[in-house]
Every structure is written in structure tokens, then in C-alpha cells.
User: What shape does this take?
Amino acid sequence: MTTRTEQTFRPPVMEAASWIDGKDFSDLSLINVSQAAPIDPPPDVLIDYMAEVLWEDSTHLYGPVLGIPELRSEIATRWSEAYVSDIKKSQVGITSGCNQAFSASISMLCAEGDEVILPTPFYFNHKMWLDMAGIKTVMLQCASNMVPDPKDAASLINDRTRAIVLVSPNNPCGVEYPSDVITAFYELAQAFNIALIIDETYRDFYSLDEMPHQLFQNDKWTETLIHLYSFSKAYRITGHRIGAIITSEKRLIEIEKFLDTVSICPNQLGQKAALWGMQNLSKWLSKEREEILTRKKAIIDNFMILKEKGWELLGVGAYFAYVRHPFLIDSDQLCKKLVDDVSVLTLPGTMFVPKEDHSGKRQIRIAFANIDAKKIKTLFNRLATLTE
Assistant: This one.
């Protein structure tokens, strides 16, 4: 018998970390572009606030399963402003990170043997949970611009389909899905009475100033849309595991059952930090966005040195550049070679596609969450020296 966890693969970031175990990088320092999470601590003012609230009794106690009311209310207000809508506190739930928000949503929507449409290249934790939950993942191959086509998705829907999942800005490809594409997916899901799950973990780093979609303006958005978000990236509180779900009150009743059994309540300190950050760190977050967009520009501006060697930039945005390499060896072997030859740790495209999809063998994800524009240039110079 195969257990639930045996249904899926090893966590990719942990697997990649094993490639550097026991390695000596004293001659050439390691450039780690494998993980999409900031390693810098939160800003000092947020740390100071978190130290203060450690003395509050409520910080150390169980709280409401769906999160503290103040944070739910703040999210409802901020998202209503951002998406020009009227989102209610009762339509917001707080989770222990965005991965849990996804897991809870799938558990609420699906029974074993149901199907979920997932664009590929996919975010591997989404695929892992679907595997372990006994849900059939139906792959939707993205076009050459790394954007999925709603028309292709329509042909994959059947009576067991329960949801379509979008991640925008996308992990691993970095692409920001155009508003009209997101709208078309929403209308498709609405027509077939299935859910549209949109993971907008990286919404704070959109390159455009206008809102990414108008879905919350639809009078019946609660019947179709499930919006997921993470506070980890915006305020550098990755270890405190705070995410959010925005959906209908009816669905949150079911989601509450899942959350109560796996975590009882979200981290209290993390929730208070997220709330304080939303209320006090707007200017700081704006500068963070500018820095990430500067790194995106550095990827584009410096890529010529790799393009001349046969590399191709498939997508860039949020924390990610998704590239096609020019070598004959598969990307999983190439990435191990990168560690040994040029002291670079990154993830192969094979970790973002099913085994039968050979496109991943030529692709690599570069996560620039922790390298600035100068280090990006250094990274590309190293990659340009690589030979077969």
C-alpha cells in the first residue's frame, strides 16, 4: 500500500539544499537563488513592535480559528480599496501561511478522485498537496509566453472538475497574467460552476500600478472566486506563517473545520505583526517593491550575456526569472553541475512539471529574492562561463 505522503515527491527546496551539504565555498562564495523567500529580518520598527506585544497575554493563547477580527477587518478594508469592491470581514479568513490556505481550499472543494486544473510549470507545493489529498491534477500547458490559455482549459473540464488554479505573479515563471486572461478564466469557471483559485502571494510586487483584475467587482464573485495571499514576503515574516483566504462566508464555514483540526488558530504574534505592518509600513513596503522591480530590470538588462550563449528568458517578475538553458544535459543534472562549477544553487525546471513533460529538462528557475542588481550581474557572468 502506498501512503498519502508517498504519493508525491520530496520537497524541492530541501532536495536542492542537500546538493550543497559538505561543500566548501571558501574559494568562490555560493550564490543561492533556489528559495523564493527573503532571508533578511523584518524592519527594525516591526521587530520592536513584536517585542512589545510578546508581553500581551493574548499573544500566547489560542485565538479564533479564522484569525483575529482586527486583521480580518483590515484585510477586508485594504482589499476593498485596492480592488474597488466591498469585501466584508466575514469573507476573510487567516491561515498559517498561504500553502495552508490552498490546502484548506482544496479540502473544502474536493472529494477523493475529483480533479483540479493546474497550469504548468506549476508551483510544486500545490501539486504536492493535490497528490497527497487524492486529487487528480489535470495539467494545463502554458503557451510560449508562460501564460495559460482559457480556451485550452475549457477542453479539460468534466463533471469531476472542481477548480482551476492560477498563481499571479507566477511562481515559478514570474509572469503577471493579463487582466483579460484572468477575467476569461473567471468567466469559464463561472460558466461551469467550479471555483477559480487565485494565489496572489506576490501581489505586492506587481510591476503595473493598476489593479491586476476586476473580479471582486462582480456581484457574484463569492460563488466562484477564492483569493489566497501571504504576508511572508511583504513584511519578511516567513517564519511566523500568516496567510489569508477571501471567499464566501459559506465556504469559510467549511474551511474553518480544516483549520481547526490542523492548527487550531494562526500564530498570534504573526497576526499582530501583519496587522501592524499593514497599518504602519506602507512607505517601507513601497520601497521594497521598488527594489524588487529594480532587480527585475537588472535581470532583463544583463541577460544579453546569456542570450549570446544560447540562453532564453521565458519570464521574469515578482521574485523569479524562468530561463531555458542551451545545454544537452537535463536541468536536474545541470543544476548540480552549477553548484560544483560556478557555486550557484538554483532549481531545475523538472521540479515544476510532471515527469512526462520534457520541457522542464531545458528550464531553470532563478529566485532573486535575496540578490541585488549587482549580484545578479555576477550570477549571469558565472553562468556565461559554464560549458557542457
Observations:
- The two ends are 42 Å apart (CA to CA).
- The chain has two domains: 5-41+284-384, 44-281.
- The domain at 5-41+284-384 is CATH 3.90.1150.10 (Aspartate Aminotransferase, domain 1).
